[in-house]
């Protein structure tokens, strides 16, 4: 069995007379070093936990990354003396394997040992989640399975004396990669493994890494010091070579776009693009990233693809590299192959494009096993300026600026003129647009000559112009829809519709459509028609009404030159100053107009197309701009926001001291109670988007303090000062666009404990003291003979009581009246007016009581007098 019959390559056989290999690639790299708070240079493991945090084991210990902060956790667990060499996210936490042996688990924000190094005294080279169990492979002490609290150690005698590097479970078989080949075991239970031999073709080979294909479950990729191979179940597990050019494969990963990433010890990184539309193993292209192509390192030790499809490359000696697909890619053609004015574009075959330029036709394609686009100038077309292209199943139709309409035969490299007017053999006319209807007929817009309908052979079936009752002779754009109607757009006379019944409706003239300058028309996947205008924005017609999109509603400009619908129904609009994206699923509009992002901002009129992979291309005056994988790169993900920490008075603190228990909400305790003097809180939060954290927007509010959500912000912290005692709920939500918010938010409850003087028992104590004071006053008033002393005591008692009432009422009065002085004066006057009569009445009462007491005392002191 050979590689040639195991996978297919796409090969082109043309001889290319004039080529341009376009670069750079559709990827950008970001290197993490000391400038980004990362000091590791040797990377052992990379993984992502259930909360989205990225964990990196390096020679400088363990790091946790949230997209903005690279947090070093050496003080917590990993040290330079015991490096983390393997990691995996399990159902109950993150499991870490160490260089010196042992396994720890990160759970509830804390790191705890599962197996100490004394229990597992061998380097842990790999940890994987198999079902709901954790399987760990040591370098020379066999296998360990963590299952429902059980620790099952499985010594493998066949592996004694060899170095175990990686393993994978494929259905009911275990494969172990070692320095002496790929060992295969049958799984007969949790603790029973039956040795079935070394896979043929791998004996005495250094097997460094394994990966089961996520689409072809019976395929196992095998990376060795002799190259990349794969095994396939059902064909005897024979190894098949894929890369054998002295590449020492050290790491493997697969992304969501069916791309296999291969890391090596000596030749950098290799991208193998697999065909996603077939169940067979077929390779479309191979791309190399190494020092010669500008990549950071040739020595790769670890690869990981996160949930956002970002590729993380752990090098051996040059740190951590983040590899991501660029959103846009501009191909500059003027200074390279002297091309200008890309007026028209069309998809040519499955993997090719055809460009119509001022200097002729250009074929765009890629060579086998290369990712760069190649631009071939077709010499036979030079001397013509092309403004319209249409590729049908068997022909290429090309409209020129001054020479009319042609059909192109690429095989013979010839152009054949198509005569539209029998009485004009020269036909030096401008062809503005060419379209095909559902019946296969060709519609051609010729400047000053109206519209022609042709059959597939090029014979004119109908000619529409003002002489035949048509509404205009200079049509700019044509759109035959799926229902059999044909739409026409022109400058000055607007929009018209030819129904399948043959009725011509003048929509602009009859004021059904409000604009008179139409640039392009296209039909959406849902059947709606989109009309781009010159100055009035964009219109969507759903069969009943026209809905307008303008600059006020979010468009970059009201001048729309081109429109394309991508594979998921997003609408791309090209302008002179950039690109607009309408995402109907989210009801939002996004704009892109930075030259560094787009390369060139101006889009040519009606120059746009889509390739077989879903990429969208816009023609520019001096090149083309590629929108890279729009169905994937521009989707809005609903991220989960994490409250990472709470700081007191802007200082880091151990918030566990304020926790009622160790139960966590995401990464911090769920029940937090702070003393009254610890009421200056800063909430640190993050919605983890590793690819582009700056794109995330936030809104927050503190329930119990704020009435409304905060303004949209990029900040990842919120500070509240001098919080009153009470219960609060901090709420935060995120979005990648200011106009799109969901009802989902993250919440965290906190409580500010009141001071002792606001506790119920202290209020009771105060009231008791006042009552005691009243009682003492009452008691002494009967015993004091001085009227002044009685009045003084009564006055003091009443003053204290009323001052207490005033103090308690003051916060409510301020809430009602604010700081308006007149209200404060009025309240004080009211209390004073109440104080005087109460004091008088109490004084009289005390005086009367004192007199009664004195009278009673006098009577008691005098002896009884007998009557004479």
From TrEMBL:
Gene Ontology MF annotations: phosphorelay sensor kinase activity
Listed PANTHER family: HYBRID SIGNAL TRANSDUCTION HISTIDINE KINASE C, TWO-COMPONENT HISTIDINE KINASE
Organism phylogeny: Bacteria, Pseudomonadati, Bacteroidota, Cytophagia, Cytophagales
Keyword Hydrolase: no
Transmembrane helix as UniProt keyword: yes
Residue ranges of the TM segments: 760-781, 788-806, 821-840
UniProt xrefs under Gene3D superfamilies: Immunoglobulins (2.60.40.10), YVTN repeat-like/Quinoprotein amine dehydrogenase (2.130.10.10)
Protein name (Swiss-Prot/TrEMBL): Ligand-binding sensor domain-containing protein
Keywords noted in UniProt: Membrane, Phosphoprotein, Transmembrane, Transmembrane helix
The organism's place on the tree of life at top rank: Bacteria
Domain Two component regulator three Y positions: 692-752
